[in-house]
C-alpha cells in the first residue's frame, strides 16, 4: 500500500514536470539580483560625467543622484502595487491593458519591440564589446568592427542562456550581480579611505550655482535616471516569482535602497580621488578612477564593467520577451510568440525574436539617436501605467491589493514622469517628435490586424501555415495550465 502511494506521488510529480508552462522558480535572492543586475549596467560607470556637466557642481550632482534614486524607488513601489494587484507577467503592457484598455497596451508592445528594446540592448552590448576590446588595444583606439563582433558574441551568449533554461539564466544573473557589486565596492573602499584621511578639497564650495542653468538641470536628471533604469523588470516575470505578494515588494525595496546607497557612495569616491575637471575630461570615469586609486588593479576594472554590462543585457533578455509572450497570449501579437519550449520551459520564440533585431541595429550603428527616442517613449508609458493605477484605484476601490503604495508617492511619481515627458518635448522636439511618430505608427497596425482583423484571407492562411512549421521546428506549444 505504501509503495503504491509512493509510486502515485512520483507519477504525479513526473506529470507535473511534463506540463508545458512557465514555472515559479524565482525566489527572493534571484529577484533582488534580477533588479540590481539589470539596473547596475554601464550607467554608473559613464553617467557621472553627464550629471556633473549639467548640474554644474559636486554638491548638486550628489543631490541629483540621491533624488534620482528616490524617484526610482517611488516608481518601483508603484510597480510593486501593480505587480501584486495584477498577477500576470508582462509589466507595462499588462498594467496598461488592465487599467486603460487594449490600444495603449498594444502601442507599448509595439514601441518596445520596434525600437526601445533593440536600441537599449544594442547600447549595452556595445558598451560590453568596447570594454572587452579596448583592454587589449589601450592606449590606441580599438577597431570598430572588432567591438561590434564581440558585442554580437555577448548578445548571442545571453540569448543562448535564456533559451536553454530559466534557472540557468537566473543563476547567471545572480553570479553577475555579485561581480558588479564587487566592482562597486572596489571603487567605494579607496574613496572612503581617502576621505577618512582628510582628502575633502573637492567637496569644499560644493554647491556653487554659478554654472547651473535651469534648462540643463533636467538633462542631469535624465543621465541619473538612465543609470537607475531597469527597476521595473521584475514585473515582466510576475508569474515566475515564488510567493509574488511577498517577494515582489520586498525585492524592489531591498534592491532600490541598495542601489541608491551604492551609487551615491561611488560618486563620493569619484569626487574624493578626481577633481570635477578631471571627471569631465573622462569618457570612462571608472577606468580613469582605477588608474588613479587602484593602479595595481587598473586593468581589472574594464573587465568588471564589461561583466556588469553583460548582467544588464541578461536581465533585459530575461524580462522583455515575457512582455511579448503575454501580448501574444492576449491576442495582440502572433500566437507563435505565446508558446513555450516543451522541454526547456522557456519562451523560446519570444527570446529569439529579439535577437536579429538587436544584431541588425548593432551592425547598422544607428543606436544613439534611437536611445533618445526610447527615453521619451519609455517615460511616457511608465507615466500612463501609474496614471492607470490611480484611475483603477478610483474606479475599483474594493479590488484586492496585497501591497498598496501611499497615494502621495503615486501622485508625485506620476506628475514628475509627465513633467519629464513634457520637458523633453520642449528641450528636444526633433527626437521627441520622431518618437511620437514611431509610437503612433502602431495605431493603424492595431486597427488593421487586431481590432477588426482585416488582413486578406490568403495572407492569413500563408501566415498560419508558416506558424505551424515554425512551431514544429522550435518544438514549442501553448501553456497547458494557467499561471496567473
TrEMBL record:
- Record membrane topology: Multi-pass membrane protein
Keywords from the UniProt entry:
Membrane, Transmembrane, Transmembrane helix
Q: Where are the transmembrane segments?
A: 26-46, 58-80, 114-133, 145-166, 178-196, 216-236, 248-273, 293-313, 348-370, 376-394, 406-426, 432-450
Signal peptide range: none
Give the main localization category.
membrane
Q: Does the keyword Ion transport apply?
A: no
Protein name, as recorded: (Atlantic silverside) hypothetical protein
**Organism name:** Menidia menidia (Atlantic silverside)
Taxonomic lineage is: Eukaryota, Metazoa, Chordata, Craniata, Vertebrata
Amino acid at each position: 500500500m505504501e509503495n503504491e502511494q509512493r509510486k502515485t506521488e512520483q507519477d504525479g510529480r513526473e506529470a507535473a514536470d511534463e506540463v508545458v508552462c512557465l514555472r515559479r522558480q524565482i525566489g527572493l535572492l534571484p529577484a533582488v539580483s534580477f533588479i540590481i543586475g539589470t539596473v547596475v549596467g554601464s550607467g554608473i560607470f559613464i553617467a557621472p560625467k553627464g550629471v556633473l556637466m549639467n548640474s554644474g557642481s559636486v554638491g548638486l550632482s550628489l543631490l541629483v543622484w540621491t533624488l534620482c534614486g528616490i524617484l526610482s524607488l517611488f516608481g518601483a513601489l508603484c510597480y510593486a502595487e501593480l505587480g501584486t494587484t495584477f498577477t500576470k507577467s508582462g509589466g507595462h503592457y499588462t498594467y496598461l491593458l488592465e487599467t486603460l484598455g487594449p490600444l495603449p497596451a498594444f502601442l507599448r508592445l509595439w514601441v518596445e519591440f520596434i525600437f526601445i528594446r533593440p536600441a537599449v540592448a544594442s547600447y549595452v552590448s556595445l558598451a560590453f564589446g568596447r570594454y572587452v576590446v579596448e583592454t587589449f588595444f589601450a592606449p590606441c583606439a580599438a577597431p570598430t568592427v572588432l567591438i561590434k563582433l564581440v558585442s554580437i558574441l555577448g548578445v548571442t551568449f545571453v540569448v543562448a542562456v535564456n533559451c536553454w533554461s530559466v534557472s540557468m539564466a537566473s543563476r547567471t544573473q545572480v553570479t553577475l550581480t555579485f561581480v558588479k557589486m564587487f566592482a562597486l565596492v572596489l571603487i567605494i573602499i579607496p574613496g572612503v579611505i581617502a576621505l577618512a584621511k582628510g582628502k575633502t578639497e573637492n567637496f569644499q564650495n560644493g554647491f556653487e550655482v554659478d554654472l547651473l542653468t535651469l534648462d540643463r538641470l533636467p538633462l542631469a536628471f535624465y543621465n541619473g535616471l538612465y543609470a537607475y533604469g531597469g527597476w521595473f523588470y521584475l514585473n515582466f516575470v510576475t508569474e515566475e516569482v515564488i510567493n509574488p505578494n511577498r517577494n515582489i515588494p520586498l525585492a524592489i525595496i531591498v534592491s532600490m535602497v541598495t542601489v541608491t546607497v551604492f551609487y551615491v557612495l561611488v560618486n563620493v569616491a569619484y569626487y574624493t580621488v578626481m577633481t570635477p575637471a578631471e571627471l569631465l575630461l573622462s569618457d570612462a570615469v571608472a577606468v580613469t578612477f582605477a588608474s588613479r586609486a587602484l593602479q595595481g588593479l587598473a586593468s581589472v576594472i574594464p573587465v568588471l564593467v564589461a561583466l556588469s554590462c553583460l548582467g544588464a543585457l541578461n536581465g533585459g533578455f530575461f524580462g522583455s520577451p515575457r512582455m511579448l509572450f503575454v501580448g501574444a497570449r492576449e491576442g495582440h501579437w502572433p500566437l507563435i510568440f505565446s508558446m513555450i519550449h516543451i522541454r526547456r520551459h522557456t519562451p523560446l520564440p519570444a527570446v529569439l525574436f529579439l535577437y536579429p533585431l538587436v544584431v541588425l541595429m548593432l551592425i547598422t550603428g544607428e543606436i544613439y539617436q534611437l536611445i533618445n527616442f526610447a527615453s521619451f517613449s519609455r517615460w511616457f508609458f511608465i507615466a500612463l501605467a501609474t496614471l492607470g493605477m490611480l484611475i483603477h484605484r478610483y474606479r475599483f476601490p474594493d479590488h484586492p491589493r496585497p501591497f498598496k503604495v501611499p497615494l502621495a508617492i503615486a501622485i508625485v511619481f506620476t506628475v514628475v514622469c509627465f513633467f519629464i515627458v513634457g520637458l523633453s518635448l520642449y528641450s528636444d522636439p526633433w527626437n521627441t517628435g520622431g518618437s511620437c511618430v514611431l509610437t503612433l505608427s502602431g495605431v493603424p497596425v492595431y486597427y488593421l490586424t487586431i481590432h477588426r482583423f482585416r488582413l486578406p484571407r490568403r495572407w492569413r492562411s500563408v501566415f498560419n501555415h508558416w506558424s505551424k512549421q515554425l512551431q514544429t521546428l522550435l518544438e514549442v506549444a501553448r501553456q497547458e495550465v494557467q499561471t496567473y
